[in-house]
Amino acid sequence: MLFNKYLRMRKHLKNHWLSPDKLAEIQNEKLRKIIKHAYDNVPYYENLFRSFRLKPSDIQSVEDLGKIPISCKEDINRLPLTELIARGTDLKSCIHGKTSGSTGVPLQIIASIADLNRHQAVWNSFLLATGRKITDKLLSITGRFPKSYRKRWYEYIGIGRNSFLLTKEDADSLVDGIKKVNPDIIVCYPTRMLVVAQAVRKKNINGISPRILITTAETLDINMREYINETFNVDLIDYYGSWETGMIAWECYKHEGYHAIVDSVVLEVVKNNRNVEPGESGEVIVTNLVSYTMPFIRYNLGDIGVYMEKMCSCERSFPLLLEKVEGRSDELIILPSGEFLSPNAFDVPIKYVDGIEKFQVIQEDRNNISVLLVISQRNSSEIVKAVERKLREHVPDSVNLNIKLVNKIPMATSGKQKCVISKVKAQLN
Ligand SMILES: [Zn+2]
Fold first, then answer.
1. Of the candidates 421, 216, 412, the residue with the CA atom closest to the CA atom of residue 302
2. With pLDDT > 90 as the criterion, what percentage of the chain qualifies?
3. pLDDT grade for 415, boundaries at 50, 70 and 90
4. How far is the CA of 319 from the centre of ligand 1 (A)?
5. How far is the CA of 192 from the centre of ligand 1 (A)?
6. Which of 152-166, 339-353, 403-417 has the lowest mean pLDDT?
7. What fold characterizes domain 329-422?
8. Where do the CATH 3.40.50.12780 domains begin and end in the chain?
9. How many angstroms separate the alpha carbon of residue 237 from the centre of ligand 1?
10. What's the 142 CA to ligand 1 centre distance in angstroms?
11. How far is the CA of 316 from the centre of ligand 1 (A)?
12. Gap from CA of 165 to ligand 1 centroid (Å)
């Protein structure tokens, strides 16, 4: 098991340095395979292909992908799960996840153990590229797959150690949780790390000194990055991924852009149904090449990204295809005390309250937070109470929580519906 894991990871690591032609060959081969699989086994894609008179043989390479219509979360979310996963999937043996709800509509994600192993190989080869050593202790504060995680035997002898921190969002709980593990590597949302960095600076806290810091899932603006780097004396590495499609692209220490993981995904940046030019922004469209249980083909993640097209000076052959992902740095909630709260303090608890279809949290000013809920059930007062109870774990009584039931959540001008918006600007110093 450990040996197989090692082999898979080595194979991916080797791909980082293959010739561009060889890499394109691998990508196209995997693309043909996943397209055929989706057409043969997944009702949603079979119907989609048939309605556009497409056959798997029409897609021979990445250049043909434009023939397939783009699917967005709304297209997929309204369908029963049986339409979206491969026929014959044994749900009991699968990993069940939920998207982050950054668009306010969580989507159920199913992955088999084989899918998960393929995703882990991609993840582990990235960790090696960031400098992970075999004895390093990694702490993940992103809440991914913690329920299904079982400690492996080798972790008990100090190899490949992983921990997950599931904690409240306040600075003290985060600081205590990190100190307890004393990790060499921290994987975290940038806003959450910012909360920790602020506490470390204000309270002169010692004992948090990761060698490697990895952030994901939110846009890092340059001020946030510098604040975190200076606080922990690290050079943080950011990666871009999603629950639906797994890892998509990552930075190396050259910080020249995001290396697209082209042996596992096809990344497109599209505007008005055409691929944008380098330097232009558009919607990020991803085709995953390793998820067979619940395939995502030309899937619109709802993120706006800036496209680039160049090789990195680190000389890896994974091209730099993404300059940055825009948006999301305006999601930090600022309390009257000046302390920050990560958007996760809101979107994570709310998405687990049953009966909520969509939601949006808007910080109007330091003392007022509006929570808009679209609900599917009648017992609205119960739902409102549950949301308030959960949010009060982080939000002090001095801040008004104005919870409103609405019929729909207005769309942002970017086209991406955000679930946490703050109109208060953070003071980073
Ligand atoms: Zn590089």
1. 412
2. 45
3. very low
4. 8
5. 26
6. 403-417
7. GMP Synthetase; Chain A, domain 3 (3.30.300)
8. 1-327
9. 11
10. 24
11. 6
12. 30
pLDDT classification of 330: cutoffs 50, 70, 90: low
Spacing, Cα 126 to ligand 1 middle (Å): 12
Distance 211 CA to ligand 1 centre (A): 19
The helix-helix angle for 43-51 and 20-41 (nearest 10°) equals: 100
**In the CATH scheme, what is the code of domain 1-327?**
3.40.50.12780
Closest CA to 215 of 172, 242, 186, 256: 186
The neighbouring-strand residues paired with 422 are 363
Residue 95 identity: I
C-alpha–C-alpha distance, residues 281 and 308, integer Å: 9
Q: What are 165's strand-pairing partners?
A: none
pLDDT band for position 429 (50/70/90)?
low
Strand duo 108-111 + 95-98: pairing = antiparallel
Q: State in Å: Cα 128 to ligand 1 middle.
A: 13
Q: Which segments of the chain belong to CATH 3.30.300.30?
A: 329-422
Asked whether the beta carbons of 237 and 212 are under 8 A apart, the reply is yes
Tell me how far the alpha carbon of residue 298 lies from the centroid of ligand 1, in angstroms: 25
Starting at the edge strand found earlier in the chain, the sheet holding 400-405 runs: 400-405, 368-375, 356-365, 420-422
Q: How far, in Å, is the centroid of ligand 1 from the Cα of 317? A: 9
pTM score, two decimals? 0.78
Q: Is the pLDDT of residue 414 over 50?
A: no
